[in-house]
Every structure is written in structure tokens, then in C-alpha cells.
Amino acid sequence: MTEMERLPGAQPPEPKRRGVSPAFVVWLIGIGAIVLINYIQSLAERFHRSVPNLGVLEFFAWLLVCCLTLYGLALFTRWFLRKLFWTVGRRLFLSYVMIGVLPFFLFAVLLAAILYVIAGVASQQAFKAERQSSLGQLEALNADYALQGKRPRLDGIEIYDTADGSAKKLPEWLHETTYSGFALRAGVPLLVSSRQYPNGRTVVLALPMNEQWERALEERGGMVVSTRLASQEGQGFNISEGDFGDFTRRGVGWRRIFFYDITERGGLIDWESGEANPEKRLFTAISNPTSNLVQFYFGGATNSKIMRAIFGIILGLATTLMLAYLIATAFAAVLIFSISRAVNRIEKGTRAVERGDFSYRIRMKRHNQLGAMAQSFDRMTESIASLLASVTEKERLQSEIEIAASIQRNLLPKEGPQFRGVSFSAHFEPTASIGGDYYDVFNIDKTRLAVAIGDVSGHGLSTGLVMAMVKAAITTLVEEGADEASLFQRLNELVFRSTERRAFMTLAFTIFDLERGTIRHTNAGHLYPYLVRRGVDTPISIESPSLPLGVRSTMAAQTAEVDLKEGDAIVYLSDGIVEAQDENGDPLGFEQLERLLAANSDRSPSDLRDAILDAVARHSGTRAADDDRTVMVIRFDNLKSAAPDASALAVNGAALVT
User: What is the CATH number assigned to the segment(s) 412-651?
Assistant: First the structure.
């Protein structure tokens, strides 16, 4: 907002009129293309001609229309939600619904799930009880038949008796074993009761658990079941035989509980061999009427009277709680209305201030926090007019400093070297809004890259200007292909000519030749970088002594060449790291830094950078930084396969003459 817009009576700028969206125009073109393609296809079919590539064009037209339609729906949804919940009242109402109503719904869903599981488990137990009752009935029929000779009247039952020769069909194990349980015969499950009597007589009753048995179970209690053979497969089961079509026809209904039952592992005996089959189990789908559960839990005349009384008490309590909830809802609605009205009045005041009308007063009574806020707003508008001139000037200066700081941050590289196998990490922390430290990365060609780091003496805007000037100059010189000696000489002349006599700049410039495996390091008064190498206990300092830039009109830069090996990491620092002082004024020092580098030689550049910064933070404690702090770490792996991306070389692709 400009100064004229802040003055009382100033007119707000007219809103910009938005034209037709390009995306909408493209969407219309896509629709037109689809219509045109369909028309051409119909003409071609009429005249028995074929037009090539029409199908491909129609596919891409539909793809474009679908993508833009989804994009438009997303924009409309966002616009609709913003309009719907723009006011505070609507947001408060939504918050009330989310906090006050949604938990009831979620609790109801959870309660329904819990009750369903309980009902399912109860149905499962009821089925097991029915099945066990059938097995117990077989046991009783077996004893009656053996002692009294009374043949059981049970549909589908099979009787095998050694006394009348019918036991010849029995497997051998049933002649010698008393057994009561399940058996599997030719894929059909059976309920088996086999008993050995003192006179050597064996009586076996077998009842197939087939559709007839399931129908009888349904007639007794309304429970619909369907039993199938299941095979164990890992943690799951494969029901490979039969389907549940008849079960779904007979057992589907709203007032039924659907659950299942699986026999225990090894509980199914093979009819022929008498051995347990751990891979075969019985899977039973259960459909149990809810009336069975109600009768089971609340059946009986006495229980019915008690439960009616209990249900009446619960209904009365629920009604009382609902009335209390409705009262709370009405109270919440009143609060929402009062808050919305107060916020709307405050919003009108803020819009008036936005228009430059500082004479607007909300004039609300101090009944609550919003009233106090409104009165505070009125007092604020009274004092704004007198402070506007000084605030405007201060904001202008601060804005210029922030712009300069933003420009300085944008001058630093946002990405590291674009080489495979080369990892990079850096950190820049100025003590003031604008710092004097500088670092940069250059992708020279397919096998070489360069890095630079520097430090301008002093702080503030002047150092930032020098840093920006050097940044532009070194970028130009690298793109021109200047060698190290020429580059440092021309930079020295620039700094010497453009700064005060006591101002100078340190600079370190390194070229990494990944094909030759060499490091060429040229220094102008900057801290020597450290070469951290695996297997070496002490980091290697790449020493190249020289005066900083700008101290003299001429200078002779020294270049040191070191071999580059697989896994090497180069650590660059500014003096703000080494000279970081604790509360007693003791600096961090080189010895502690070198021990830290030696202990973290195998870590990634980001981890090594963080380790250095953490050490500085622990050493400094609560003491503020006295100088800018810059850390730059670069590691080299897979030197033979390292190659930059073509897009990166297009940016910093100038050849550097060495």
C-alpha cells in the first residue's frame, strides 16, 4: 500500500477485471475439436472413406478436455468452500458441528460396530451350541440304540452296527475307537458318534452336515447356515468347493446378523484313515435372526418385565439428555450469533481503515473480549494518523533493506553441482539483515566443476553490495574462461578500486577435475578448506597462502593442486564458524573443529554440515553471533560415472582455462 492510499480520504484502487481464462478457451477448443472430429468421421463413413490419425487426435482431445474439466472442478470446489466458509459465523457453526455433533455420529458408528461384533460372536456361539447339541443327540441315540435296539428317527442318519453286519462298511479305526466329533468323507463333513460296548459290540452313528441338516437347523430356530470345506493357505483360507447361492437367498434380511465360524486346526478327522487333517477345516457362514439374540439374552416373562423397565429408564434418561443437548445447542447458537455480529462490525472497521478512513469508530460496549478488542481498535485508529508519517518512512527503509536481503539470498545458488555422484550442502547465516559472506557453484563442463566462497569485511548494506558486485564479476569471468591468476587479479582490482582502503574481501576458488581426479585450489586470505578423507584420522588442510582481495593494487594468487579420491569430502568455512565465542569469550578454534571433522568423516554433506552447526550452537550457547557463518560441504562418490545434467551445463556451461 502506497503513502497516498494510507492517507485519510484516499480512494482505493479499482479492482482489476479478469478476462477469460486461457484454460477455459483451451477447453472450448478441445470440445470443438471433438465435435469436428466426430463430424468428419461420420462424413467419412457415409462416403466410405478413411481419414488417418483421427482416432489419435480424438484421444488427445478427450484427454485434454478431461484434464481441464477436473482442473475446473477443483477450482470451483475451492471457490465454493471459500465462499461457503468465508464468514466467521459459518466457520463457528462448522466447528460446532465437528466438535459437538460429529462425535455422536462417530460414537454411534463405533457402538454399532461393537454391538454387531458382539452379536456375531453370540451367533457363532449359538451355532456351535446347536452343532454340539446335534452331536450330543447322536451320543444319546447311540446309547438308546445299543441298549434298547430302538432305531433313531432322525432324517439322514447312518447306522453302523457290528451286531447286524452293517459295520463292514466302516473303516478299521472306527471298529477299535470310541470317537465323538467331526469327520470328512469324500468332501462331505459328518457328525460321528462311535462307541465301544463291553460285549465287543461297536455302534457308529453318522449324520452328514448337508443341506438337510442345515434345513433342520433353520426350522428349529430360524438360523440359516452353509458349511463348506476350506483349505489353509498361509494366514488365509481358500473355500474351493461349492458356493453360497442358496445361503444368500435364504439368509439375506435386514433383521439378521451375518457372521462365520471356522473349526479348529486339526479338528477334522479323515473318515477312511482316522487321522487329523490340519490343512482341512470347516467354514460355516451364519445368518442369525436378531430375534434369536433378543430371546437368548432377554427372554422369559420375568426378564421381559425387568427389561421393559430398564428400557423405560434408559429412554427417559436419553430424553433428558437430549433436552439438555438442545438447550446447549440454543446457547451455542446465541454465542455464534453474538460473535458473528461483533466480528462483522470489526470487519467493517478494518475495511474502513483499508480505504484510508481513520475516522471510523466501531463503538462497541466493553462486555466481553470482542468489545475490548473493538475499543482497542478505536484507540488504535486515533493514534495511527499522528504516527503515519514516521511509520511510512520507517517501513520504506525497512522494505528497502528486506528487498536487498532478498536479492542477496537469491544471489546464492539454490542447487548444488549437477553431477551424478557429487553431493552438496551449504548453510548461510548472516548476523545482520544483509551479510558479507558469499558462496557459489559452477558446472564448467562434463568433467569439471568449480566452487567459490568469500567473506567481505564488515557488515550491513555496503558489504552486501560488494558481495553482489563480486558475485557478478566472478560469474562473468568464469563464463569468459579466465584462468585462476587472471580471475583473482581482476577481482582484486575491482575490490581495491570500489571499496575503502581498509575494506577487503577473502576468496577461495576451487576447480574439481573429476576425470583427472585433481583439485586446484586458489586462495586469497580465506580460511583453508579441509579435505576429509576416509581412512585418514586427521583432516587435511589445503594450504594456499595469499593476501585478501583489495589490500593492494596487485596480488599474486597461489594455487595448490591435490589429488581427488573416491569418497573425499571438502569442507569450506567462514571465520564466523571458527571464531564463534562462548559466554566466556573463548572461540571454538581449529582443534575442536578438526576433531569434529575427523569423527564425522563418513557422514553425508548435510549431516556433516549439521554436525558443524550443532557444535557451534552448543559452544556459543545463548551468545549471539559476532560474524556471518557460512558452511559449504561437497562430497565425491563414483567419480568415473559422474557427469552433469545437460540442463545444468546450459546455465553454467562456460569452459574455464586452467
Answer: 3.60.40.10
pLDDT, tens only, 229-248: 887 666 666 776 556 667 77
Domain ranges of the chain: 22-77, 109-297, 299-410, 412-651
Per-residue buried b or exposed e for 23-34, using 16+ beta carbons within 10 Å of the residue's own CB? eeeebeebeebb
Please state, in angstroms and rounded to a whole number, the distance separating the CA atoms of residues 597 and 591. 10
Cα 323 from Cα 318, distance rounded (Å): 9
What is the phi-psi region of residue 48: left when phi exceeds 0, alpha when psi lies from -120 to 50, beta otherwise? left
Distance CA 635, CA 545 (A): 24
Cα dist. 583→332, 577, 587, 596, 621 in Å?
55, 15, 10, 21, 7
For the stretch 563-618, pLDDT in tens is 998 889 999 998 888 888 888 888 888 888 888 988 888 888 999 999 999 999 89
Q: Give the burial string for 353-369 (b: 16+ CB within 10 Å, else e).
A: beebebebebebeeeee
User: Which residues have a Cβ under 8 Å from the Cβ of 100 and sit 6 or more positions away?
Assistant: 328, 329, 332
Contact criterion met (CB below 8 Å) for 462 and 504: no
Reported pTM:
0.43
Between the CA of residue 417 and those of 89, 439, 445, 508, 635, what are the distances in Å?
A: 53, 13, 11, 17, 10
Q: Supply 6's cell numbers.
A: 494510507
